[in-house]
Specification:
Helices cover 33% and strands 18% of the residues. This is Alpha/beta hydrolase.
C-alpha cells in the first residue's frame, strides 16, 4: 500500500469568482515549487473529483516544473451550497475554467511553456478545449490521464442519444443514474481523501450533464485537430465495477481501470490530433497518478519523460 498523502492545506487554495459573481473556480498551488521552473503544468480533475494528489505536484517539482490545479465550478472546493455538484450543461463551462487557469499560469510564470494535465472527464474537456484553441491561447502540450472519450463499457449507462437530447432540453436536472462508487471508496481507504468532495456514495448523473458529455464524445469520434503534442495514458486493462460480473472488491480495484474501457481510449486517442503519443501502464487504476507504487512511478516517469522532450 502506498503511504497516505495529505490534501493541500486551505491557504493554498484560492477561490476566484468569474467576473466577481458565481460560479467560482478554485486555483490550488501546492507549497513546493522549483526556484527556476522549466515550465508549468495545469491540472484539471474528473467527475466526482477534486485536486488532492500533492505527490503529483511534488514529482513534477522534482523534475523542474511548477504546478497549478483548478477545482472547476460546482466541483471540489468550488462547490457552493445550493449548487448541483459537478453539473455542467455544456462542456464549454468547464473548458472556460481551464482557460482561466492556463491564463493564471502564464501570468504567474511568463514566458514558460504551459502543459495541461487532465483526468477522465477533465481529459475530455481538455481535449476539446485544446482543439478549440489550436490557433491561439491554448497549451504547449496536453497530458490526458485516462480520458473519458466514450461511454462504451464505462461507469455511465447512457440513454440512447435520441431519447437523451429531448429529455435534457425538457428536464436537464433529471437524475438518470445514481449509484455508489466502489472505486472512490477504495481510493478513500488508501489516500487522504475528503469524502465530501470525492464521494464514495457517488454523484447523481443528470440528463443535461450526460447530454453535454455525449456531445463532446461524439465530437471526438468525428476527429479533433489538436495542434500540440498530446500524451494519452491508460491502464493496461479494465474491470467492470457495476452490472453482471462486477468487481465488488479484490485485486482489480488496485490494478485495473474499473471506471472506463481502456480499449475504447486506445481506439479514439489517434483521433485527437496529429501528434498523439500513448503510454500503457500495467497495473494502473483509473487515475493512474493514484495507482499502487510501481504503476504510479511508471506513470509519473512517463509524464516527466514527455515533458523533457518538450523542453529539450
Amino acid at each position: 500500500m502506498p503511504g497516505r498523502r495529505p490534501a493541500p492545506p486551505g491557504p493554498q487554495a484560492r477561490a476566484v469568482a468569474a467576473g466577481g459573481v458565481a460560479p467560482v473556480l478554485t486555483l490550488v498551488r501546492p507549497g513546493r515549487a522549483p526556484d527556476a521552473p522549466r515550465g508549468v503544468v495545469v491540472h484539471l480533475h474528473g467527475y466526482n473529483d477534486y485536486f488532492f494528489a500533492t505527490h503529483l505536484a511534488d514529482a513534477l517539482a522534482d523534475a523542474g516544473w511548477a504546478f497549478l490545479a483548478v477545482d472547476a465550478r460546482r466541483a471540489g472546493r468550488s462547490w457552493r451550497e445550493g449548487e448541483v455538484p459537478h453539473y455542467q450543461g455544456d462542456l464549454r463551462e468547464q473548458a472556460s475554467d481551464l482557460g482561466r487557469a492556463v491564463a493564471a499560469a502564464r501570468a504567474a510564470w511568463p514566458g514558460l511553456p504551459v502543459v495541461v494535465h487532465a483526468h477522465s472527464t477533465g481529459g475530455l474537456v481538455a481535449a476539446l478545449w485544446a482543439h478549440a484553441h489550436r490557433a491561439r491561447g491554448g497549451a504547449d502540450a496536453v497530458v490526458l490521464n485516462s480520458p473519458f472519450l466514450s461511454v462504451v463499457r464505462s461507469w455511465v449507462r447512457p440513454l440512447q442519444d435520441g431519447a437523451l437530447r429531448p429529455l435534457a432540453r425538457r428536464a436537464p436536472l433529471r437524475v438518470v443514474a445514481h449509484r455508489p462508487s466502489r472505486y472512490a471508496a477504495r481510493l478513500a481507504e488508501r489516500w487522504d481523501v475528503d469524502t465530501t468532495l470525492k464521494r464514495p456514495q457517488g454523484v447523481a448523473v443528470r440528463a443535461g450533464w450526460l447530454a453535454a458529455l455525449r456531445a463532446g464524445q461524439l465530437r471526438v469520434a468525428r476527429g479533433l485537430a489538436v495542434g500540440v503534442p498530446v500524451l494519452v495514458a491508460r491502464s493496461a486493462r479494465s474491470a467492470v465495477e457495476h452490472g453482471a460480473g462486477a468487481v465488488a472488491d479484490g485485486p482489480a480495484l488496485d490494478d485495473a481501470d474499473t471506471v472506463l474501457d481502456v480499449a475504447t481510449i486506445a481506439a479514439l486517442a489517434p483521433r485527437l490530433g496529429t501528434d498523439v503519443r500513448e503510454v500503457v501502464v500495467d497495473g494502473g487504476v483509473h487515475d493512474l497518478a493514484l495507482s499502487l507504487d510501481g504503476p504510479r512511478a511508471a506513470y509519473l516517469g512517463a509524464v516527466v519523460e514527455f515533458l523533457d522532450t518538450l523542453v529539450r
